Amino acid sequence: MAASPPTTATTPSFAGSIRVGMGQLLVEGGEPERNMERAAQMIAEAARQTCDVVLLPETLDFAWTHPSALTEAQPIPGLYSDRLCQEALRHQVYVCAGLTERGADGHNYNAAILINPQGEILTKYHKINLLTVEQPFYAVGQTLNVVDTPLGKIGVNICADNFLDGLSIGHTLARMGAEFILSPSSWTVDYSITEEDDPYREKWVKPYSILAQLYNVAIVGTTSVGYIVGGPYEGKKSVGCSLAVDASGIRAQGTFNEFAGDLVVAELPRPVRAEKGTQIGEMLLRKGFRFDVLPG
Asked: Domain CN hydrolase, which positions (predicted)?
């Protein structure tokens, strides 16, 4: 086996910046109206703080794996996505949020949408790296997309798509030219876990940092807060810890907090990504990344 090429230290290049409001929402299982009202309030607060983008949690309508979603999920466009579009238009901000979608094929999907300030859905994504416990609730997504906006090229994924074992999804978004990856999330722990035991420092900082440093992209994940009621994770809790990472390190991080919502604002320089296509592979080789090594 040939020796790995030496890692080449590079200084990340940036141009301009955007303000992302990470809206850590209290998401109540099976209470979509209350959850949507809190989402609207968070969007308004982010606009007051001059955010360009508001990133909200995963499945903020019914909550992640809540049984009510099996029978009450709405299409996109539909009742809940329309509400978010109205709020984006009212406050003239981009909104990225996780919802449960009843697809035209009859399946439910763990979905995320990106809405522009004109209230239009720019892209919709279905989560691919589904946990085993959520597979009875959602079908596996089959597409990835990156959209051009005045803020930069934005890709969208969801929560466990950024696990180390699902990081190929982020690699692909970066290969597609993403400068920012927005990830509605719902990070959960056992009810007994406290701030002193916070397990998320390395679980999320590490994979976010891998993508950020390899490709010079910014990755932002916003998570819900509150105790989980109903479904396979009943009794566990969502604890915030929303995270924004770019090639220079952690830009912003929410507190470990299961009790109340909070808006965490991240000022993110827009990465300059000159490489395209095979140039990206050449850049990765210069950084010591290996394409030809099988697991030991």
From this structure: 18-270
